[in-house]
## 1
Amino acid sequence: MSSFAVPPRLAFVVPDDVDAPQVFLMPLPDGPPVALEGISAAIWVLAADGEEDVVGAVGALVGKMPSEVGDAVEKYLQELVFRGLLTTRSD
């Protein structure tokens, strides 16, 4: 699995005063704002924070085995990279 990072020209806010995870993203200088909530936000935060095993962390978060969530999480991470909301990190 790849590791991820926040792209250099992406502004983001992760509010800490809410019950469910939220992330507000905006590609600079003129990209459309994007709001992520719930598990979508949690996946972005885990990946952006450099979590090496995002699938395992998401599985633990939702109480499922990594094999149960792996395909969906991997697909969503690829979508985030495609949309420019994450980048893959070259180690």
Note: Residues 80 and 86 are 6 Å apart (CA to CA).
## 2
Amino acid sequence: MPQASNPSDSNLISKAQRFFKHALGKDNEEKWQEQYAKGDWAWLRRLDELGHHSILAGYFTYLKRGGSLLDMGCGEGLLQERFTEADYSKYVGVDFSEPIKLAIHKQTDKTRFVVGDMNTYVPDELFDAIVFNESIYYLDEPLKAFQRYATHLKPDGIFLVSMFVKDKHLDIWQKIESGFPPLDAVTITNARATSWVCKALARPEK
């Protein structure tokens, strides 16, 4: 005869599952998936969010026009919308499944959207530019991730990064710039007094 389950055992199992989901980042992933499905991220299309997208797009078209672009944490492809297909030879956007569902209709021979986690995603080719547009906060170890992604840049490839201004983000910038020297930097502030720092960073010479 099977033994009745102990409620305390179920609670322990539930706590353990929550712990491991948190440790693996799965709780955040599930939260973002749910929020995107409900439309909670629609505010990213507001006019006051346009500036930092436009700066990163400008960096790419000035430095690598006609090249290939990997957009990590692309959301529904808002950065891609700042380009025409004449601006790049290939665009690949990577994010969780819910935002990719909103972007997939824009796929063409030159534009592709892929479901993936930026902490584990492995590109299958080299790119002229890799972008982290307000997504770098979600890397477990930003510098190590940049070092890994740098192996998927062409020899003269660049990183393009945008982060909103916050004291704790200074540490992320310092870590990244210890290995990837900035080519240029712009700080932009919108009408809501929200500011972003946008930078183009070089792949270090071997």
Note: The chain has two domains: 7-40, 44-202.
## 3
Amino acid sequence: MMSRELKSIRVKNGLTQEALAEKLEMSVTAYSKRENGQIEFNVTEIKKLKDALVLNDDDVIRIFFGSEVA
């Protein structure tokens, strides 16, 4: 996962870790560990993150799999 890119998108959306954690229905500590790459997001969390940050499928693939869609 590309942690820096996820943080950048979160900040561009005007969200703190606290605000995004609330949208994802998890603690700030749990979100922080995921954003920093210590724990992986599960599929349900990725779907919620996609909605909260208004990401498209290409964004999700780039952030979580580190590659562009051909």
Note: The chain has a mean pLDDT of 92.
## 4
Amino acid sequence: MKKQQPFYRMIFRSLLPVLAGSVLLYSCENSQAEIDAYTKRVQMQEVAQDVESYLSQAGKMKARLKAPLMYRVMSDSQYLEFPNSLHVDFYDDSTRVETWLDSKYGKYFENLDKVYLRDSVVIVTVKGDTLRCHDLWWDQNKAIFYTDSVATYRSPGNNISGGRGMEATQDLKTVTFRSPLGDMVVSSSGFAEAP
């Protein structure tokens, strides 16, 4: 005949898993905020001050960038951010400055080789051609500037062109407006003359 176990032992064996499970469930005391802090994505960032950087392509110097502050953000798409202005000198094949650019804000997308510029963007050539706009994209691979916003272009002969949407070569030898607003010739006295 089989020996029966005492009643208290049967109850203990049946309640033990329930008791162990309860202890495990209630011992976790992290709030949702603490869990989010442990599992949130960390965005890596590097900071540099008084930056001077050079861009070369195919062994030739193409540009020099100067900025008082730069952030390098490493996330899904890496980018460099210039929140306090930037200045870029573009060089010709003889490493002479042919164009320079100033902007109060810039963002360089490393994977695309494109730069977004905004807030008082000014591009000037050594010949005196000047392009001004609020925001502008610079495609380094194609060596072009383009924008969908309003831009103005002034040539050394005092011709002024403007329009919404523009594309220009990096040296400003070719400037095309998609929706031109008009041309005018400015005399030396500063008043507009009929073309």
Note: The helical segments are 7-26, 32-39.
